[in-house]
Amino acid sequence: MILVLDQVGLELNGRSILKGVTLELALGQHLAIMGPNGAGKSSLLGLITGDLEVTSGCLTVFGKSPSAFQPLERAQRISALSQSSELRFPFTVEEVIGLGRYPFRAKAASTARIVREVMDALQLNGFAQRSMLSLSGGERQRVHLARAVAQIWSSPVPALLLLDEPFAALDIAHQVGVRRLLAQVLAAHPVSIVSVVHDLGQATQGYDQICLLTEQGDQLAFGAPSAVLTPNHLSELYGITISEMHYADGTPAGFGAAPAAP
Amino acid sequence: MKLWLWFGFLVFVWALVFVLSLGSGYTELNFADIWRQDSLTQTVVGEVRLPRALLATLLGAGLALAGGGIQGVFRNPLADPALIGISGGAALFAAIYIVFVSQIDFSLLGLSGSAFLGGLIATLLVLVIGGRQPDLSTILLAGIAINAICLAGVGLMSYLAPDQTLRSVSFWALGSFNHVGWAEVTVGLLVIPAMIRLISLSLVLDVLILGDQEAAHLGVSVIPRRIEVILWSALITGISVSLVGIIAFVGLIVPHLVRMTFSAKHVVVLPFSAIIGGGLLVAADLLSRSLLAPVELPVGIVTTLLGAPVFVILVARWSKGLWL
């Protein structure tokens, strides 16, 4: 197992953020963490990167506590994309993606090739020499995603990619592009992915495991999407009536809120 | 490859300004005269102009490079050792050293050490007061406050100072190469190891610019590295302030120029800032001697006259959401 959480709890300043989170992630799988705003989804990623420390229970990544890694060793195996990264300097797109290879600077020869491959995969080639300051919010987000992906690309050992809202500022075409990239990463490299996602509409696609967190940070359910993503669970989670939608031929088309009662 | 050519060209420009500076002044010497071995040339060039131009090179290079490092570590392209309090703190501690210690035991090295300590304390105060906010303008505001306190302290010390030359507030606030000799150059050489170490941290500075969390996720030990960059920058600034007073805007404008013209990567920004800063300060010193000759202007007036308008433009663009 790449990632194991057993009854993990987190308290910050005496306030309970997460309680009883129990899950497992195998190599090559994609786990989505879902829940309402303030459910502690980002904090859960913080526990995995070692930015935060568990206050109860047990969490291991690659069989170790995140705090047991040396900083460089951890960076060679765990890559994380935070929600926002503001850059006020005119670095080019290529340079920023190249910074994702910092943990492997001893093998700098492969950097240019990996940066080119990642830019190809995310259709960023035309942007290589553009300054980050000239990009739109969505373009910048794709560059930072590319940087996080470059960090685990061609990893010789199993690696973990953590993504906080990877689709937040993207239009639907780029959301599809990013999904394709993540599928490609999982297929071609020894990687597992944990994503924090918001959008219920797309939540069923492309994930192997789903973890639902309530507003109080309790784990409501964990398992395969078909078992976890049910109208009952989601209605309980968000406190409004949510039903599953279907295409005309009867295949599932995601979830939506029922119209408010008059 | 193209960058190397540019760097070579900038070295050539620096050498040109340097030689020009050796020849210009009250005693005009042409290029051939400079190398003569008579006593007049040896005095004018060897004892006065050469140490002066050498120190201007060292400190200009050091200040510009430290400015680039400070901007990187504060993630703020508008930071500058003089704006965020390092120079003010250094000047205050240098003045305190002169008033309270120098009667007992004066050494140039002690003066520089004291200035370094003052710069460091001021920077740490600015970080504690303004560093918690992700909005980096609070750091600049904290710097302005600390600077104001320090310069008021310098003014106070100047009334208590025993030595006439060091009594003038304008020496500390505006900077001058008027009194520079070989002793100052010797102490000024200390900026070289600090510059080399900062250049060796170029890639770390690139990563730090992504943000603390991002840098940590890339395996950088953020706090030790940040303190180290501040330490070396404060050392350069402290040495510079103790020897020639506060020279503002070199550290702000030069790295900016390099980022706009060449690259934002620190492995380019830092060495290019050093060679341009060195040439710029030699030129500024030359201007300060020749603009109103035979009266000599404080060199800080020249750098401020050159730098402040650029700073105004940058702030105006900043307020429109543009960073460069």
How many separate domains make up the residues of chain B? 1
Give the rounded overall mean pLDDT of chain A.
89
State the shape of chain A: globular
Going by helix content, strand content and strand pairing, the class of chain B is mainly alpha
Radius of gyration of chain A: 19 Å
Mean pLDDT of chain B: 86
Question: Can you write the helix and strand succession of chain B as a string?
Answer: HHHHHHHHHHHHHHH
Name given to the CATH architecture of chain A: 3-Layer(aba) Sandwich
Quantity of strands of chain A, as a count: 11
Secondary structure tally, helices of chain A = 8
Name the chain pair whose interface involves the most residues.
Answer: A-B, 30 and 26 residues
Oligomer description:
heterodimer
Question: Helical residue percent of chain A?
Answer: 25-40%
Give the full name of the CATH homologous superfamily of chain B. ABC transporter involved in vitamin B12 uptake, BtuC
The counted number of beta strands of chain B is 0
CATH architecture of chain B: Orthogonal Bundle
Write a short abstract of this structure.
Chain A is of the alpha/beta class.
Description:
- The complex is a heterodimer of chains A (262) and B (324).
- Chain A is an alpha/beta fold.
- Chain A has one domain (3-229): P-loop containing nucleotide triphosphate hydrolases (Rossmann fold).
- Helix content of chain A is 30%, strand content 26%.
- In chain A, helix 3 (93-99) packs parallel to helix 5 (137-152).
- The termini of chain A are far apart.
- With 324 residues, chain B is mostly helical.
- Chain B has a single domain (2-319), classed as ABC transporter involved in vitamin B12 uptake, BtuC (Orthogonal Bundle).
- Chain B has helices at 2-23, 39-73, 86-100, 108-130, 137-160, 164-167, 169-174, 182-188, 191-200, 202-208, 212-217, 222-244, 250-261, 266-290, 299-319.
- The chains are: A alpha/beta (262), B mainly alpha (324).
- At the A-B interface, helix 2, strand 5 and helix 3 of A face helix 10 and helix 11 of B.
